[in-house]
Amino acid sequence: MYLDLSPEQLMIRDTVRNFSDQVIEPRSEEMDRSKEFPWDVIKAASEIGLMGMTVPAEYGGTGSDTVSYTLAIEELSRASAVIGVIIAVHNSVSAYPIVKFGTEEQKKTVLPRMASGEAIGGFAVTEADAGSDAGGVRTTAERDGDDWVLNGSKIFITNGSVSEYVIVMARTASGTGSKDFSTFIVEKGTPGYTYGVLEDKMGITGSDTSELIFEDVRVSDSMRLGNVGDGFKIAMVSLDGGRIGIAAQGVGIAQAALDQCIKYSMEREQFGRPIAKFQAIQWKLANMATRIEAARNLALHAAQLKDLGQRFTKESSMAKLYATETATWAAIEAVQIHGGYGYTKDYPVERYMRDAKVTEIYEGTSEVQKMVIARDLLK
Ligand code: CAA
Prior knowledge:
Blueprint: H1 7-34, H2 39-47, H3 66-79, H4 81-101, H5 104-115, E1 120-124, E2 140-144, E3 147-158, E4 163-171, E5 181-187, E6 193-198, E7 209-220, E8 224-225, H6 231-267, E9 269-270, E10 273-274, H7 279-307, H8 313-342, H9 349-359, H10 366-377
Parallel strand pairs: 1-4
Antiparallel strand pairs: 2-3, 3-7, 4-5, 5-8, 6-7, 9-10
Helix pairs in contact: 1-3, 3-4, 3-6, 3-7, 4-5, 4-6, 6-7, 6-8, 6-9, 7-8, 8-9, 8-10
The chain binds acetoacetyl-coenzyme A.
Residues 89, 123, 125-126, 132-135, 156-158, 178, 232-233, 236-237, 239-240, 313, 362-364, 368, 371-372 line the site of acetoacetyl-coenzyme A (CAA).
């Protein structure tokens, strides 16, 4: 391990590991099959403080450090990538921006509800023509007295239709620069705010991925997050932290694949002995374990830099790039080790393969992470 984890960090990791084994794992397969949002698991996770990890204690959260949060998301995702992404998005790109950029009034109103799990959070940048190009956002927010009036739509929003609060990046000026955007906290039930398509996905099927529609949605200026014109930077800073969580999700999926392969290869016999006795399998397991450890250390390193208050943009992109590609690769290796059984729903490895792929796509594709890393190298 790159870091010496403190007794408190180890305790958080072990608590979440036990929770994942006892509460999440028995529900993972059913969550995938039913495609239903796992309200019961989120309620149980809320009861042990997992919905308030990035929220300071004064607003009802646990005020955990980023290293602890990263360890927690890995452990949750090892049992279910669905639970990993719901809790990661809620904490990192929804609650955290309010902690960092919110007014005292916003913090007092919104954060206790989010930290208790009563209100789930989302983060809405992506639109039909604004995916990797976040600056292509067309949703507008026009000032009208004490309000802003939002019009437009967002797609692929994690926790979209189940969120009580969603952070929305909208265009507040008509130019082409990064200062043309602002962010708003939009509450469920606001007139004109509705939901469109609920995506039917390849993986992470139990999570909610929705289209959000804004038709003359009035948001009070008191719910503007940060300064007018700072929306793009607020989104980027939020994503810097969010990407550590997705890296941790990748590590968790990859670790689950390895754990399953170790178990299977010691049980499964071919040619008169367990397949774990064959060097071909041993080398696969060794490669998986090595890449997973490297990915974990990249994620924890980025988390540590964030906790130290240092810049971590490049490091979080490196962690996300490497950990999520490791997740997909390890899950495919796991299917191969399981042979024909791996291609069936009798074993969880096909689910890991489907769940892993999206980690290379959301919160910035692998290609976007390479852009971020290269820009830092060449600046
Ligand atoms: N921190 C602070 N400021 C930042 C920043 C960062 N990490 N990254 C950029 N900025 C600032 C720049 O300094 C620049 O400031 P100035 O205008 O004052 O000079 C400004 O923002 C514009 O930066 P760029 O010129 O680099 O912007 P760009 O248009 O070239 O875009 C990009 C850069 C990295 C490609 C960005 O568009 C990006 O990250 N795209 C991917 C978006 C993404 O991850 N979307 C996922 C949405 S969330 C999701 O997946 C759903 C979910 O719910 C999980």
